[in-house]
Amino acid sequence: MIRTQQWFLLLLLSAFLTGCGGGGGGDSDSGGSASSVNAGIDQTVNETDSFTLNALGDPAGGTFSWRQLSGAAVEGMPASTASVTLVAPLVKADSILVFQATYTTPGGQNLTDEVQVLVKAENQGPVAVLQITQPSILPVAQGLTVSISAASSYDLDADGIIASYLWTQTSGSAVTLTGANTATVSFVAPLVATQTDIELALTITDDEGLTGQGSIKVPIRASTQQIIADAGADQQVREFAEVQLDGSGTRTVTGSFSCRWSQLKGQTLVLVNPTSCQASFIAPDISGTSQLELQLIATDSNNQTATDTMLVTVSNAVLGDLPDTGVVNCYDISAEIPCGDESYPRQDGDGGRDSVVQYLRKIGKGEKAFDFTKLDQFGDELADTANEFSCVRDNVTGLIWELKEPVITPPPASTLRAANNRYSFVNTNAGNGDEAGVPAPASSTCPSAENCGIEVYVEEVNETAYCGGANWRLPTLEELMSIADFSRIGENHLLDPAFFRFEPDHSVQNNMFYWTTQTSAEGGGGISAWVFDIRNGNDNTLPKQQNQLGYVRLVRSP
Asked: Using CA atoms, how far apart are residues 383 and 495, in angstroms rounded to an integer?
């Protein structure tokens, strides 16, 4: 009977140990006795609170160990006692920690059980701390910058941070806040008729979404002036740039004002909207560097006025040393479009002198950006309206150009500079690619009794001291192109007919090739020289042969 009672008690104890906690593990040993471990019941704690894990093992006399399976790391793990007290970690949201208890029986058997600890997050709102950091003297005088810092604000959570700032103005004369979404906000003290306060409110938000508020009043000193004009900062621009004038920074006690702009110094300007606070003008065509002085007169609603000035320094635009191509229009794939279209960038009409032709200050006359001056037989300047002139100066490059004479009779009975006279390429000087060329026969395609080679023609023109000079020469290809107006393609030639009145007849040789001084063209050694077709703007090469003829237009420097 006693033996039966002992077995019954053992069975009850085994059932009790197996049913505790998270489901204790258990095995039977070889002798038939039961072993088990229980990690205890699941718990709920607040972050940073202490909690205790207790494990029970059967049969007694074994050893315990704990380890953490998941969740935020807890200091004190792993542990080697049946009972261990821990501190719940800081968490941003409710979190579950899982721990495992291992019991090693006296017989060496390892049994495990798990327990969960729910850690509840406790979020506390942030605290706003506001301080005026500048200026140090209060009340603040008009025009000074006021800075207010919330850098000392803090979050009550030990692991919390302030994630955002939002400043707003709640009272006082309207001001513009700088840094309204940062820890430090600033504004310029306004004009006020009597001492007044500017009040700002701050809302801060921590990293868990809780907010805190604060506010501060900044005393503003009464202004001695009713209006202070502000013409804006001085500017440095290139000629032909559009210059914006802005007087909107003017400050008044009443808050409203009007503007009027005028010019005090410099080359005369055409002001656009001079009675508006936002005016403009086009920087003029200048030589070197020029300084313009503009004045703003501001008037408030009480008819009080104030003035301010600003300087605009104008320097030369980078337009190049050539007059440009004469192409002032822009196009898409099928039609003309306004220049400056970003869909069709870098067009000829978008840049260079032609793009600012309406603002150019010319010395002489000419179509588009071309600027020519008529010269007499001695090389002296003539009026733009002169009907009789001997040569032309390009005021952009400074070069003086030969003008052809009308064709009265065909060669060889023609005059020295007749438009239809033609020549073969001859250059006996160094730099000819070791190919001097062969002159065309005398009195063949020109009136010269010596030969119809270029070199003879240059000598004969210089002997006449044509247009007051004896340094006439062949131009380069680039120099010839500089007087061509490519917008005239399709007409008789590319030159301005008001200045270049007599040009060769295209039908003579089905082109209008003019020789250049450049030789050794297109990898052909010295056997060919460059020509430029003044009819269509194409460049080409011709061999330096007796029967390869072209026209000649001479050029010289002043």
From this structure: 20
Who contacts 30 (Cβ-Cβ below 8 Å, separation ≥6)?
A: none
Is the pLDDT confidence value at 21 over 70?
A: no
Q: Are residues 302 and 188 in the same domain?
A: no
HSE of 89, CA atoms in CB hemisphere, 13 A: 17
Q: Which residue has the tokens 């719940």?
A: 88
Mark which of 175, 201, 220 sits at the end of a domain: 220
Question: Rounded to 5 degrees, what angle do the CA atoms 85, 73, 64 make?
Answer: 45
Quick one: 190 and 249 in the same domain? no
CATH label of the domain that carries residue 246: 2.60.40.10
Q: How many residues does the chain have?
A: 558
DSSP state string for 394-451 = ETTT--EEE-PBP-SS-TTSS-TTBTT--BB----STTSTT----PPPTTTSSS-SS-
- Domain assignment present for residue 506? The answer is yes
Whether 275 is covered by a domain: the verdict is: yes
Distance, CA of 299 to chain centre: 36
In the numeric block, the tokens 């064709």 are attached to: 407
| Alpha carbon distance 224, 387 (integer Å) | 68
Residues 73 and 184 in one domain: no
Angle ∠(429,435,437) on CA atoms, nearest 5:
85
Q: How far apart are CA 418 and CA 406, in angstroms?
A: 6
Contacts (Cβ under 8 Å, ≥6 apart) of 136: none
Phi, psi of 172 (to 5 degrees): 95, 175
Task: List Cα–Cα distances, 249 to 199, 221, 264, 308, 485, in angstroms.
Answer: 22, 20, 21, 11, 47
Note if the pTM is more than 0.70.
Answer: no
Residue 69, number of CB atoms within 10 A of its CB: 11
Q: CB of 408 within 8 A of CB of 418?
A: yes
- Nearest in space to 510 (alpha carbons), one of 481, 539, 536, 475: 536
CATH code of the domain covering residue 101: 2.60.40.3010
DSSP label at residue 478: H
Q: What is the pLDDT of residues 431-481, one digit of tens each?
A: 888 899 999 999 999 999 999 999 999 999 999 999 999 999 999 999 999
Q: What is the pLDDT of residues 63-87, one digit of tens each?
A: 999 999 999 999 999 999 999 999 9
CA atoms of 244 and 235, how far apart (whole Å): 9
Residues 493 and 555 in one domain: yes
Return the pLDDT at 1.
37
In a domain, residue 349? The reply is: no
The alpha carbon dihedral of 498, 540, 440, 480 has a sign of positive
Host domain of residue 199: 126-220
Q: Work out how many domains the chain is built from and give that number.
A: 4
CB-count burial class (<10 Å; 0-12, 13-18, 19+) for 333: exposed
Which residues, including other chains, have CB under 8 Å from residue 104's CB and lie 6 or more apart? 62, 63, 64, 65, 110, 111
